[in-house]
Design goal:
Largest sheet: 5 strands, mixed
Distance between the termini: 22 Å
Strand order of the largest sheet: 3-2-1-9-10
Structural class: alpha/beta
Helix content: 10-25%
Order of helices and strands: EHEHEEEHEEEEE
Number of domains: 1
CATH architecture: 4-Layer Sandwich
Shape: globular
CATH class: Alpha Beta
């Protein structure tokens, strides 16, 4: 199963359309700050979509957080701004562990991260629209689950 993880598109959806077309994922996960583009994103995804509220998603009915399963893995999806993610992933990983999650997916920082240390995997795809990491290339993550339910995460750049 191929899962496309994105965040912080901020109504600039061209790169999202491009990435969906390139990868044709089985599922799309958006970690917030779509800024009213959730319907357009859902239509373009063409597959199941999980999307949460970001700190810039004013007047939206999106959920603030979601908990769901992908295969045998318990996933917690949140934008992350309420968990001090700008300071690192330690706090959000502790919260995820307290919720008995295997994976936490978040955005907000506009910097890609795959943190596999400890009992919880923390994943942040960065931003497809306003990247902030060195080199400032739009980023996203491809998560693959093979037939034996083994995970892999690959940070990708445009």
């Amino acid at each position: 199963m191929k899962i496309l993880i994105v965040s912080d598109t901020h109504r600039r959806n061209e790169n999202f359309f491009r990435v969906v077309s390139m990868h044709r994922p089985d599922m799309v996960i958006h970690c917030g700050d779509s800024e009213g583009s959730e319907t357009v994103i859902a239509e373009a995804a063409g597959c199941p979509l999980k999307i949460v509220l970001g700190n810039n998603d004013y007047f939206s009915n999106l959920p603030r957080e979601e908990e769901f399963c992908i295969g045998k893995y318990r996933v917690w999806l949140t934008h992350g701004h309420n968990y001090y993610v700008s300071m690192g992933s330690d706090t959000i990983k502790r919260e995820a562990a307290a919720k008995r999650m295997d994976i936490v997916m978040y955005g907000h920082t506009h910097r890609p991260v795959v943190d596999t240390e400890g009992e919880v995997i923390a994943v942040n795809p960065g931003s497809l629209s306003y990247p902030r990491q060195e080199g400032r290339r739009p980023s996203y993550i491809i998560m693959d689950i093979d037939r034996q339910e083994r995970l892999s995460f690959q940070i990708e750049y445009l």
